[in-house]
Design goal:
The structure is a homodimer of 201-residue chains. Chain A is mainly alpha-helical and 201 residues long. Helix content of chain A is 77%, strand content 0%. Chain A binds a DNA duplex (18 and 18 nucleotides) through residues 8, 10-11, 14, 35-37, 45-49, 51-53, 55-57.
DNA sequence: GTCTATACGCTGATAGAC
DNA sequence: GTCTATCAGCGTATAGAC
């Protein structure tokens, strides 16, 4: 382990302010589109002072990703392989919709990066996520083998859940125009119905 | 109507080369992330010569959007309100999957822009798309009223089709890592099954 | 129509005073 | 720890020769 100096109260507060500002700016403009000026301004801080805390732009971004990736994957980790299959999947769907409602910036932070080929999140995807994905896919496959949910391709099942739920955050600008601002209650009901019908044996 | 000089063969060829290059670059990096240097290089052209044809970066981008928006919306327009409802919807789903396979760059071009708040496509969305969306939603609602497909929220039905099908293009980088390169045959079968089960009365 | 040269603002990052 | 001043490089766009 690397030994690191403990951070002072001011340091902790400023790092938090910077990361909060960075989430706002990176999620809206992507890595390249975001500027340190914007982030510094949003954090009520001078640009050199920002750099004092994070060395460079990439470090801010990577730190931000690392900070959110665990929270981002939490609902997936919480699928209980010993639970009731349909309940577990519907609970997962509901939590993902909830995250699109409550954490749209985090969703767009990742979406921006993946649409552009995932240059800086590739390790996250190939590591943590890949392992979790394979594990979840295997659990779904077992449930299907046991006849407890209908047999479908488990990989595509996961993709479709991601796609349908994250869509409300990532493409929120489009939905705002077409349907207007929404609480996502309708979305949740629609998706629960969709996956219930698909997965009931 | 505005009277415009006819374009010479060279002009036509160069404008095509620029737009082809621009699709490649903008779809991968987004508007701000793309540079005129990249586009010019991809089009085998000097940067000033590129500007000779399009005046500025934004004009290239807007021209590119206008060029592709019709093709992009074609499958939606082709839904036949007098056809067999489930067939029409499944055909639409299949065509959208096909577009993710054959036109992933076009998909990402729009995805990039919408994730970032649709600053430059807002008019397209509020105009052409909004009208087409409302019309399609109304057709779906009528089919439900007539009991020919199951009753669900038609707006969310459209969103879920967009989300699930475009996901394979927009988040292709993630899928390549998790499942590996794919022909999308499995995706198509999965989605046909999904919407058949949901919509069969 | 196409090129070289260049202007010029913006952006990431550093130096150094306080 | 925070600031002002500043730099180097990139990126858009223009001028002007050919």
């Amino acid at each position: 382990m690397v030994k690191t100096k403990p951070l002072s109260r001011v340091q902790i507060r400023n790092r938090h302010a910077i990361l909060a500002a960075a989430l706002e700016v990176f999620s809206q403009h992507g890595f390249r589109g975001a500027t340190l000026d914007q982030i510094a301004k949003q954090a009520n801080m001078s640009k050199p002072n920002l750099i004092y805390y994070f060395a460079n732009k990439e470090t801010v971004f990577v730190t931000l990703l690392n900070q959110h990736v665990d929270a981002w994957l939490a609902p997936l980790r919480e699928i209980d392989q010993d639970g009731e299959p349909l309940d577990e999947i519907l609970t997962y769907v509901r939590r993902k919709v909830q995250m699109s409602r409550d954490m749209p910036r985090e969703s767009r932070l990742f979406a921006n990066e993946i649409v552009q080929g995932a240059p800086r999140v590739r390790e996250h995807l190939a590591g943590d996520l890949k392992q979790l994905f394979d594990q979840t896919s295997a659990v779904f496959a077992r449930w299907m083998d046991e006849g407890r949910i209908a047999r479908v391709d488990p990989d595509h099942l996961i993709y479709s859940i991601w796609a349908t739920t994250q869509h409300y955050a990532d493409f929120g600008a489009q939905i705002d125009i077409l349907t207007g601002p929404d609480t996502l209650d309708g979305a949740e009901a629609f998706l629960v119905n969709l996956y219930t019908k698909m997965l009931t044996p």
